[in-house]
Amino acid sequence: MIYNPEYETMPREEIEQLQIERLQTTLNRVYRNVAFYKNKFDEMKIDIGKIKSVADMKELPFTTKEDLRESYPYGMFAVPLKDIVRIHSSSGTTGKPIVVGYTKNDIQHWSAMTARLLAAVGINEHDFVQIAFDYSLFTGGFGFHYGAERIGASVIPSSSHGNIQKQIFIMKDYKTTALLSAPSFAVEVANKIREMGIHPEELKLRYGLFGAEPWSDELRGRIEDNLHIDAYDNYGLSEVMGPGVSGECPEKNGLHVNEDHFIIEVIDPKTLLPMPAGSEGELVFTTITKEGFPLIRYRTGDVASLMEGVCPCGRTFARMSRVTGRTDDLIIIRGVKVFPTQVEEILLKAEGATPRFRLIIENRDGLDELEIQVEVSEKIFNDEIKNLLNLKGKIAGLIEEELGLAVRVTLVEPETLGGNGEKRVVTGK
Ligand code: DLL
Predict the structure, then answer these.
(1) Based on the domain organization, do 308 and 371 belong to the same domain?
(2) Do 143 and 233 fall into the same domain?
(3) Which of 328, 346, 379 is the last residue of a domain?
(4) How far away, in angstroms, is 401 Cα from ligand 1 center?
(5) What is the pTM of this model?
(6) Which residues, in sequence order, are bridge partners of residue 276?
(7) What's the Cα-to-Cα distance from 187 to each of 253, 406, 417, rounded to whole Å?
(8) 116-148 burial string, b = 16+ CB within 10 Å, else e?
(9) How far is the CA of 211 from the centre of ligand 1 (A)?
(10) CA distance 182 to 199
C-alpha cells in the first residue's frame, strides 16, 4: 500500500517544485537561526535568494560530521530549545556523540515516513510489529515505534538488548508478524530457533524490515529462507532523521528516498562533483522540512548510487541502491557503529595498554565478531600473567561500557603493531 499517495506518486516536475520551495524556506531558516550556516553563507558570499533550482544547490557548502562535532551539543539547532521535544544521538568519531533534536512537527513527519516503510511492504492494523531496535538515544526504536502505531499495528517494543531466547518466546507467544531490527539480529534469531528446534512455521512471521547496517542480497536470501519471511532493506541516519530516510517497496530493487522531506545527491568524495545516475559515490542529504536540526548538503560517508528509470510500484520518488560501503573508517558490528579513533581513546584510559591496536572482523555463522589486538607496554609485558589477564578484562569492560559491544581482546608484544601504513581494520584473519 502507498501510505501518502499524494506525495509518493507526485509527478516529477511537481516534486522538484515542492523541493525548491521547501529548500528556500530551509535556507532562510538556517541563515537566520544557525550561526554556522550564517557564517558559511556570508564567507562564501552566497545569496540564498538566487538558489532557484535543485541544480543550483552545487553553490551551497557541504556540512560534515566534523562540523557537527564542533557544534556539540546544541550549536546546530535552529529553534529555541523550548521547542525541542526529543533528543537522540549517534556515535561520533571520538568520545563525543552527535546530538540531534526534533520539534513536534519533526516527530509528526518522521512518524509518517516510517509509517510509509511499513505500509509499503503490506504491514497494516492486523499486524503485530516487534521492534527489536534499541529504545534509547539510538533512533531505531522510537523512530519506528511512532510509525507503526500510526498505521494502527499492534506494536511490541521488545528492544534489542537482552536474551535472544526471550525475544523468540515473545515472537512466538505474542504472534509477531513483522520483525523490525538490524539484519544481524534476524540472523541471530534464525540461528537460535534452529538450535531450539523451533520450525520457522511455528512463528507467524511474514515480514522483516531490516536496516541500520550494511547487508547483502545473499544474506537477504538466507534470512528469507531461514525465517520464511519477505525481507526488506531500509536506510537512515540520526543526523538526517533516523530510520525512514529511504526504504524498499515490494520490488526489492532500490530504496525510495522520501524526497518531499530530503534532497539526495551523490558526489565523488574526492572532487565533490555530482556523480551521474547509476555511478557510485557518497550520499549527500539536505533536509527540507526539518525545524529542529536542519542540514544543508550533509556528507553521510555512505557509498551508494542513484538508480535510473521508473519503479513499477508507482512511486515517483528517486531510488538509491543499497549502501555498499563507507568513505571513512566507520565499522558496523551487529548494528553498533565504531570509529577506530573511539577505540584509541578508550585504550588511552587503560594503564599498561598502548594506543596501538588492530581491529579484526570475522564472520562466524553469518554474524560479525570483533577482535581487538592491543599492543602492551614493555613494563606490563614483563609483568605477571595475572596482571595481563586483568588488563585484558579491563579493556574488554571499557569497550563494552563505552561502545556497547562485546569484543575479544588479545594482547600482543610491544612494537608488533602500527608499523608504517599498516591497516588498522582487517576483515577475516
Ligand atoms: O542506523 C538509523 C536506522 C535505524 C536506520 C534503524 C535504519 C533502521 P545511525 O546510528 O546514525 O542511524 O547510523 C547511521 O548506519 O550512515 C549507514 O552507515 C548505516 N546504515 C543505516 N541503514 C543502513 C542500511 C541508524 N540499510 C549509519 N544499509 C548510516 C547500510 C546502513 N548501512
Answers:
(1) no
(2) yes
(3) 328
(4) 21
(5) 0.96
(6) none
(7) 22, 17, 33
(8) bbbbbbebeeebbbbbbbbbeebbbbbbbbbbb
(9) 6
(10) 22
> Which residue among 328, 363, 384 closes a domain?
328
Cβ atoms of 158 and 135 within 8 Å: the answer is no
Q: How far is the CA of 239 from the centre of ligand 1 (A)?
A: 10
Which residue is closest in CA terms to ligand 1's atom 14? 237
Judge if 282 and 337 occupy the same domain: no
Residues 224 and 365 reside in one and the same domain: no
Digits of tens for pLDDT over the chain (429 positions)? 999 999 999 999 999 999 999 999 999 999 999 999 999 999 999 999 999 999 999 999 999 999 999 999 999 999 999 999 999 999 877 778 999 999 999 999 999 999 999 999 999 999 999 999 999 999 999 999 999 999 999 999 999 988 999 999 999 999 999 999 999 999 999 999 999 999 999 999 999 999 999 999 999 999 999 999 999 999 999 999 999 999 999 999 999 999 999 999 999 999 999 999 999 999 999 999 999 999 999 999 999 999 999 999 999 999 999 999 999 999 999 989 999 999 999 999 999 999 999 999 999 888 999 999 999 998 888 878 888 999 999 999 999 999 989 999 999 999 888 665 567 788 765
274 and 405 housed in the same domain: no
- Say which amino acid occupies 79: V
> Do both 296 and 420 map to the same domain?
no
Read off the CATH number of the domain in which 28 is found.
Answer: 3.40.50.12780
Domain count, the chain: 2
- Residue 143: HSE in the Cβ half-sphere, 13 Å Cα cutoff: 33
Pocket residue to mutate for ligand 1, from 210, 323, 324, 342, most atoms within 8 A of Cβ: 323
Query: Residue 358 sits in which domain range?
Result: 333-427
Pair 170, 53 in one domain: yes
Is residue 194 domain-shared with residue 235, that is, in the same domain? yes
